[in-house]
Design brief:
Helix content: 25-40%
Shape: globular
Radius of gyration: 19 Å
Structural class: alpha/beta
Distance between the termini: 35 Å
Order of helices and strands: EEEHEHEHEHEHEHEHHHEHH
CATH class: Alpha Beta
Largest sheet: 8 strands, parallel, barrel
CATH topology: TIM Barrel
Number of helices: 11
Strand content: 5-15%
CATH architecture: Alpha-Beta Barrel
Number of strands: 10
């Protein structure tokens, strides 16, 4: 495994992270894996040197955080050895203050996540979406208070427009408080709309980029994504036949699975892919991708077929 800094911060993480969204209560969604099925996958990640584990309070209504906390405590000797990331914003109850980025919900949610994770602090606490009903100054002050209280080490954002990210970052800087160190966004060979504003802004502002859905829900694995339980449940990822053909050509030329090439492309772009593995072989592809170096010609060939599409996923 190789490690990298998160943006301009001092935080170092593995070049591949494990997304924990797939682990939860199968009664809540058919594609959730229970803890006993998740354990061998997480164990394989730990054995491979993965140190970044990303979840959210709303994944399986908190069950993902509980599973994440139990497995990481079981598989690591020391809390300092891993980086746990979670998120706040989506509804966690029926009340009007059980959602969003208000001071009340942020600070309540920090305590809820700490309890479910079974830890004294969260390494990376991310706002899960933009909240148009709460002043950004209120949100950033609440996050800063969580950091000063020792409950959070670093803060980040997830999936919002470039102007929204810049506005929140500016509010933190202006107040002399804690600013984001990372942006987690949808980014893969089949969806590159974040290259317009968000990723250039992150590069300029020193924010690390965490790429979720790095394989476009199976589209970039060379296998039929609609054949997976989650693909059938949530629908297919955005498709581009030309992108998949280019990916397959490069992968065949290297003699490796397409997933390895798709992940190696993301690493080559300076991002940290968050792999949502549901089988141990998914981890094998991810770990091998860290060592796969694509040439400039291969990177260009992979990127050439892409055509712009309508951005999506910003609402909650």
């Amino acid at each position: 495994m190789e490690y990298t800094r998160v943006g301009a911060s001092g935080l170092k993480v593995s070049k591949i992270g494990l997304g924990m969204m797939s682990y939860g209560d199968p009664a809540k969604a058919p594609w959730f894996l229970p803890e006993e099925d998740a354990e061998p996958i997480v164990r394989r990640a730990v054995e491979g040197g993965v140190t970044l584990f990303d979840t959210a309070d709303m994944y399986s209504a908190g069950v993902s955080e509980e599973i994440t906390g139990r497995l990481l405590r079981k598989l690591f000797a020391r809390r300092e050895e891993y980086v746990v990331a979670t998120k706040v914003c989506f509804p966690m109850g029926p009340g009007p203050n059980d959602r969003g980025l208000s001071r009340k919900h942020v600070l309540d949610s920090v305590d809820g996540s700490l309890r479910r994770l079974g830890t004294d602090y969260i390494d990376l606490y991310q706002v899960h979406r933009w909240d148009s009903e709460t002043p950004v100054e209120e949100t950033m002050a609440a996050l800063d208070d969580a950091v000063r209280a020792g409950k959070v080490r670093y803060t980040g954002a997830s999936l919002m427009y470039g102007w929204q990210l810049a506005k929140m970052q500016h509010a933190a800087r202006r107040a002399g408080g804690t600013a984001f160190v990372s942006m987690q966004t949808r980014y893969n060979l089949a969806y590159r709309e974040e290259e317009r504003e968000v990723i250039p802004y992150c590069a300029d502002a020193g924010l690390g980029v965490l790429a979720y859905s790095p394989l476009a829900r199976g589209l970039l694995t060379g296998r039929e994504s609609a054949g997976t339980v989650r693909g059938a449940h949530e629908g297919r990822a955005p498709e581009s036949e030309a992108v998949v053909r280019a990916l397959t050509t490069v992968a065949d030329g290297r003699g490796v699975p397409p997933a390895q090439v798709a992940l190696a492309w993301l690493i080559g772009k300076g991002t940290v892919p968050l792999v949502g593995a549901t089988k141990t072989r998914h981890l094998d592809d991810a770990l091998a991708a860290v060592e796969l170096r694509l040439s400039a010609g291969e990177m260009a060939a992979l990127e050439a077929p892409y055509r712009a599409r309508e951005p999506f996923g910003y609402d909650w």
